[in-house]
Amino acid sequence: MSTNNEVTGCFWMEKETEQDRIRDLLKNSPKGLTIEEVSKKLSLNRATAAKYLNAFVVSGQADMRSLGPAKLFYLTQRLPLTNLLSLASDLILILDNDLFIQEANDPFLAFFRLSKEQLKGMKIEHTPLGSYFSEEYLASLGKALEGNEITLEADFNIGNDQRYFKTKFIPLVFEGGGRAVGIIFEDITEMKKYQQELEEQVRLRTAALVVTNDALQSEIEERTKADEALMSNQARLRRAEGVAHFGNWEFHLDSNKVIASEGAKALYGLSGREWSIDEIRKITLPEYQVLLDEALKGMIEQNRDYNVEFKIRRPNDGSVITIQSIAEYDPARKIVFGVIHDVSERMKADEAIRKATKQILLLNSVTRHDILNQLNSLSGYLNLTKKLSGDEKMADLAMKEMEIAETIRRQITFTRDYQNIGIQPPQWNNVTITAKKILETTDLGSISVALNTSDLEIYTDLLIEKVYFNLFDNSLRHGENVTHIRIGYHEDPRGIVLIYEDDGVGVPEQDKEQIFERGFGKNTGYGLFLVREILSITGLAIKETGTFGKGARFEISVPAGSYRFPK
């Protein structure tokens, strides 16, 4: 005789079997299936098939899109968080609000010679990592949980392997709303060692020049030897400059002259080997001139360290770059010896990450609020459904419930897309290649597309593909009578303008600014909002300048330094 437990077990086993059969069927049908197709192929009741398919969509196991009056279901392709973390070359550790370890990527585990089982689910000070995390590190974790981004430098010695790291403590928010902190260890060992070597070269060269100056007064032969040593040092520095893209310079206080190496000339964009200090000030952006003056004064008068970062506008091509300068002062000869290095790419990547983090925190709050409102509406309709018995009313209420559920799904999909903005450092993307890639997977019907962008590359977030997709989708959904789309560009004094235009109905004058706001529009209201957010990560801006009745025209402003033509 069967017990109740046995009956319940059989029921759940049968339910699980039906779900597994549907999941296997969708897996073997990558183009998707309708409810009718699933019902027929598995000999299931249509209502049962619909119930399981909708449950898959709500739980995130499947996606659904409309195909005429029918709905097409297919399995969602997702990449686990652990795989995403392991794609990064930096060491990454993620902790929850109570400092329990939630994730550690493969590079992190390999460097510290630990397994995930030794870390995951344990409080950090109770793990083998506890001895590496100082009081300063633990304090930084607390600040990060309060919403502050902290950056420290540290070195770890594992066995005989000593490594230097730039450590970033970044506030995070889990999908469920819980606070967390991510620790990114960027390996700067080579840069640190190289910097130490450069500083040592500067120190040795300064000492050698002082000794040489004294020796010149008494013996010509020593001067010859010193000249030979100086030439050898300069040759080594020239070779190093060619490899590492840095330069060295000397500032003579008595003559107010700067003598620069070939590498320094290339970085500053100035001609000649000798300049006045005013020429350096002239190419330095105004907001950094006081910083340089104070740093130089502090080094000379108070023997303070001279290690500054500032921006210049190179006169040869008008580009703006960020320079890191390290210097020492020889009071006996009144000469400052310095080394400069271009850190523009690093600064761009850091700024993009900071912007992305702020945007993710804002979006989590906004989206959660929207979803809760929709769920409240859904609950109200469900309560009414229980009280009513008429078929027409039941069908009407069911339709409204499905519409609300679809709205929730779109919001969650948008949240997933938005959270990917800025996760990876920006890269150079070829406009023509990227646009063609999107066109291969987008059905524009009879609409023709002209790409007049040559070999133009733009420095953007990796989600740039969604920018092109949403622009094409906007023409398809709202252009009404679009027959032709063109993408081109033209140069202006501040950079270039990338132009997307179609020959549809265009955008009314009163809507030109609102179309980029979240929630505005006839569809999801997120497409053009997402476009603007992706572009803003790397300093790009978008506006609509078309003529209503003649077509839409979107202009994307790309500043100098964020575009190039490789050939």
Determine the strand fraction and express it as a percent band.
Answer: 15-25%
Profile the largest sheet.
Answer: 6 strands, antiparallel
Please tally the β strands and state the result: 21
Indicate the CATH class of the largest domain.
Alpha Beta
How many separate helices? 16
Rg calc:
31 Å
Whole-number total of structural domains: 4
The CATH topology of the largest domain is what?
Beta-Lactamase
| First-last Cα distance | 81 Å
Mean pLDDT, all residues? 79
Low-pLDDT stretches are 1-13
**Which strand order spans the largest sheet, edge to edge or round the barrel?**
10-9-8-13-12-11
Rough outline: globular
Structural class: alpha+beta
CATH superfamily (homologous) name of the largest domain: PAS domain
Helix % is 40-55%
CATH architecture of the largest domain: 2-Layer Sandwich
List the helices and strands and how they pair.
Layout (H helix, E strand, L loop, with lengths): L3 H24 L7 H8 L3 H14 L2 E6 L2 E6 L5 H7 L3 E6 L4 E4 L1 H7 L22 H11 L4 E9 L2 E13 L5 E9 L1 H28 L3 H25 L1 E7 L4 E4 L1 H7 L5 E3 H7 L2 H17 L3 E8 L6 E11 L4 E8 L1 H44 L3 H29 L7 E4 H10 L7 E4 L5 E4 L3 H15 L5 E9 L2 E8 L24 H10 L4 E4 L8 E7 L3 E2 L3
Parallel strand pairs: 15-17
Antiparallel strand pairs: 1-2, 3-4, 3-7, 5-6, 6-7, 8-9, 8-13, 9-10, 11-12, 12-13, 14-16, 16-21, 17-18, 18-20, 19-20
